[in-house]
Amino acid sequence: MRGRVLMALTAVLVGLACGACSGESTESRSSTPSAVSVQVTEAPSSTPDRAPSTQQLEEMLSRAVDPNVPIEEKVQLVQGATIADGPLFDELVKLRSDNPQVSWHIGRPVLEQPGLAKAQFSVLMGGTNQLAYATLAFDEGRWKLQRSYACQMIVQVGRDSPSCR
Fold first, then answer.
1. For residue 28, is it within any domain?
2. How confident is the prediction along the chain (165 residues), in pLDDT tens digits per residue?
3. Residue 32 lies in a domain
4. What CA–CA distance (Å, rounded) separates 126 from 9?
């Protein structure tokens, strides 16, 4: 159950990579670059007509799991979230610190229509790779996790959120 909660709450906060944990596994890697290891740098998006970059999503999660970022800033990551949703962010911070072995990867976000994008992500927990798609909405001048998607994930793990009522 704990892994499922971490997966869902991570999905809720859009990102499966963060600066401190960058999605790298503990497997040994060749020092020779391969086509698979080459990453294209995407420009960040601040408009509804272009999907957010993978880096933007990684930064969102980094802020979401950072215990030093105030709740007032964290609620800006999810469409419709309020200060009353603070305990969900606190739980995510705790779950992340309790499960440092979990790694993740965010696929390149795709614009489905102006103001709406999707990003595939995978989470590796206990040797199991779980795939999901996060839906993002351009709201109040920035990309955020779409409210309906966040609420669906919260309900799936048996949690409640004031913003979903």
1. no
2. 555 555 555 555 433 322 222 233 333 333 333 333 334 457 788 899 999 999 999 999 889 889 999 999 999 999 999 999 999 888 888 888 888 888 888 999 999 999 999 999 888 888 888 888 999 999 999 999 998 988 888 887 788 888 888
3. no
4. 17
